[in-house]
Amino acid sequence: MDEITRSLKSFSEAIDGTFSTLATKATTGIATGLKAAVPLPRPPAARQPLNGGAAAARPAPQITDEEREAAQKRSDAALAALDQGYFSQSFDPLAHELAALAEDAKQDDVDAVVERLTAAVDVVSAKLKRHVLKHQDKLIQGVTNVTSVDGDVKAAFVMVQASRQQLRMAAEEVAAQMQVVGATRKKQRLMGALELASRVKQARDLHHSLKSYQESGEFGEAILQCAECHQQLDAGGPLAQLRAAPELRALVQRHYYDTLARLDAALQRCCAEFSAEGYSKMLEGYLLQGIAPAALAGKVLTAFKETVHDAAVRVVRGTVLASKAAAADAAAARAAQLLDGSASFPQLCRQLPAAAVRPCLQQLSELLFEIVASYQLMAEFHEANQQAQAQQKQQHGEQQQQQQQGGGADGGQMEAVQAATRGLLQAVAGALRAGRAEVADAAAVKLRELLLVPEMARGDEVMQVVGWSEALAAVGDAFVGGPSGLRTALTGCYGALLEGYHRSNMESLRHLLAAEQWGALPGGGGGGGIERAVRAGPIAAAAAEWAGRDLQGWLESGNPFAGIQSSADFAAAGDVAPGGAGAVAGARTSTASSRRVLAWLRNYAALLAPLPAQRAQAWRHISELFDNYLLACFVLFSGVTLETLAWQVRPRR
Predict the structure, then answer these.
(1) Which pick of 307, 448, 451, 522 has the fewest CB atoms within 10 Å?
(2) Where's the Vacuolar protein sorting-associated protein 54 N-terminal domain (predicted)?
(3) What is the pTM of this model?
(4) Span 416-422, mean pLDDT?
(5) Would you say 393 and 420 are in contact if contact means Cβ atoms under 8 Å apart?
(6) SS3 for 590?
(7) Are 473 and 491 in contact (CB under 8 A)?
(8) Reduced to 3 states, what is the DSSP secondary structure of residue 621?
(9) Is residue 465 within 8 Å of 497, Cβ to Cβ?
(10) How much of the chain is helix, strand and coil, in % rounded to 5?
(11) Domains of the chain: which residue ranges?
């Protein structure tokens, strides 16, 4: 303690010396700065004592209270005279004082500033010294308290160290005793977690296997996996106690319904393109589902009709969306209606551009023929499997009888499966035999809507349209096994087609006559082609060939609508080449309008034989076309106007 007291005293004396030195350095620094800015005259050298030694020591004068108060006031005044910037850390006193001096400042002004700042430094040094001396007792007392606390802390440290040693020994003893118990409980927890993880993994693997079966088309295996998974998650199953069991059970149910939906979608795809292997897997799935035979039969017929509808809508919608005219002219609402599938089939047909009507009919005819072929293949599949099931039933009965005689096991479960399979095959086979007319009627509705589009009857391509319609009607008759609703629907459209074709021809005739130059064209008129068209046109010849062909013959000959000839080739099939049969070589010439009129007349004549119900209408159109052309030629070359001719014609009484 005495050493600390002596140290504090020496520290106080050092502070006194330091503040004195600080004041001297501050005064010297300020004075030096001022002298550097303003050159000062060098003061005269101080007189040295005559004796060359130190000045004689003088006693310190006594300071009275009045002098002390006066000194205090001067100190306060010196501090108050300082600028407030001196109390800021970023303040530059030299720049401040130099800026305060006038440009014509003299040595006296600089000395005054130096004296003022020196006095301020002395005042600050004195205040600091008195403050330190005033609180010296408190500092000593604080050091004493710190020393006392240091002893207490050392004693506490020793006690804490001993306590920690004791606690460490106790912990080691308890850990040694609890090691066996902890290991046992840990093993129990791990075994429980392992069992739970194995059950969750089993449920997860069932889900993945179910998904893979769905994607590969193994619908029977998928349904079995769904049943197994649901049995494990149901009450009493090994996974029923899991917290996630309700969620897993709901997930399995969703995947089960998704499997059934995919099964129905696969059945519809099979109706468009039949595959015996894929269809067998579908029947296995329906058998394991437990569906009733009558329900499956209705589902198959519905799938075929929906396939017809989807094919028609897909072809027409794709054509509308792909056409540039529809994309440019369709409003936003109409385009959205096309994309979301809310537009009906008649609405889609009315939006078809003129150039895409006949290609759309050709594509739809090709798809409908493929659907008919799939229908026939499915019916043959059921007939063949019915016979196979009958043979298996007979063989199984003989084997069961032998097992009963020899004391073998009962095969009742296998017999039940075979009976259910036979029931499904018989029900679907009967529905396929009885449902041909329904499928044909569904196709007739779509074809009728497409044939009644006004653009279908424009131009000579109507001959190709009639040829396609006759081929479709022949396929429908062979499919049904007699006159079908498809032929009735197509025949009902011929009148509208002929009427539209005639309007188009009359309009074209007016334009031809207005632009006719009446110049001879080489090659002749080919008038003999009309007689040939009346006797046996290309459509009539094709219809005669199709009349005796059954459905198997159609299937063996291939799809008649795939890769068919162009409309121009089909329309020209009845034309007679220059110099050919029926033409009078070198005897006749023709103009552009006459050649076109002859081509139209040949087309009308070619429609007389295959369209018996429209013969009167076709003959009326032939007469009107010929009369209009003959009248135009008469007026042109006779010089008689229509008005004069009308006044000359009087009604007979």
Answers:
(1) 522
(2) 81-381
(3) 0.62
(4) 84
(5) no
(6) strand
(7) yes
(8) helix
(9) yes
(10) 80, 0, 20
(11) 2-38+72-134, 200-310, 350-398+414-642
Local structure of 407: helix, strand or coil: coil
Residues 431, 301: contact at Cβ < 8 Å?
yes
Mean pLDDT, residues 242-270: 87
Residues in the chain: 653
Count of C-beta atoms within a 10 Å radius of residue 415 = 14
Question: Of the candidates 194, 200, 261, 258, which has an alpha carbon nearest to the alpha carbon of residue 229?
Answer: 200
Over residues 383-396, mean pLDDT: 72
518/566: higher pLDDT:
518
| Distance between CA atoms of residues 313 and 445, nearest Å | 12
Q: Is 521 helix (H, G, I), strand (E, B) or coil?
A: strand
Rounded distance between C-alpha atoms, residue 99 and residue 95, angstroms: 6
Percent of the chain whose pLDDT exceeds 90: 19
Q: Which tens digit of pLDDT belongs to each residue from 619-631?
A: 898 889 888 888 8
Q: Is 517 exposed, middle or buried (0-12, 13-18, 19+ CB in 10 A)?
A: exposed
DSSP 38: S
Task: Compute the distance between CA of residue 16 and CA of residue 4 in angstroms, rounded to an integer.
Answer: 18
Tell me how far apart the alpha carbons of residues 337 and 319 are, in angstroms, rounded to a whole number: 15
Q: Which of 44-48, 51-55, 603-607 has the highest mean pLDDT?
A: 603-607
For 130-175, the pLDDT digits (tens) are 887 888 888 788 889 999 999 899 999 999 999 999 999 999 888 8
Specify whether the CB–CB gap between 101 and 114 falls below 8 A: no
Question: Any alpha helices (H) in 81-106, and if so which ranges?
Answer: 93-100
Structural contact between residues 233 and 248, judged by C-beta atoms closer than 8 angstroms:
yes
Average pLDDT of span 226-240: 79
CB 285 within 8 A of CB 223: yes
- Tokens 């003893």, located at residue: 173
Of 317, 217, 323, 315, nearest to 265 by C-alpha is: 217
Per the DSSP assignment, residues forming a β-bridge with 590 are: 521
* Dist. CA 521–CA 595, nearest whole Å: 9
Amino acid at 552: Q
pLDDT at 7 over 50: no
Distance, CA of 106 to CA of 122 (rounded, Å): 25
Identify the residue whose tokens are 């050092």: 14
| Residues 6 or more apart in contact with residue 309 via CB below 8 angstroms | 345, 442, 446
As a whole number of angstroms, the distance between CA 100 and CA 94 comes to: 10
Q: Are 351 and 441 in contact (CB under 8 A)?
A: no
In DSSP notation, 442-490 reads HHHHHHHHHHTSGGGGSSTTHHHHHHHHHHHHHHHHHHHTSS-HHHHHH
Find out whether 379 and 300 touch, Cβ atoms under 8 Å.
Answer: no
The answer to whether residues 109 and 101 touch, using CB atoms and an 8 Å cutoff, is yes
Say which amino acid occupies 121. Answer: V
The confidence score (pLDDT) of residue 313 equals 92
d(C-alpha 1, C-alpha 411), whole Å = 112
What are the C-alpha distances in Å from 285 to residues 199, 266, 282, 492?
27, 11, 5, 43
> Which of 322-331, 409-418, 440-449 is modeled with the greatest confidence?
440-449
Instruction: Tell me phi and psi for residue 457, to 5 degrees.
Output: -100, 10
- Short-list 488, 464, 486, CA closest to 475: 486
Q: Is the predicted pLDDT of residue 273 greater than 80, yes or no?
A: yes
Q: Is 451 helix (H, G, I), strand (E, B) or coil?
A: helix
- Determine the number of helices (DSSP H) and then strands (DSSP E) in the chain: 24, 0
**214 and 259 in contact (C-beta within 8 Å)?**
yes
Helices (H), 136-239: 136-216, 219-233
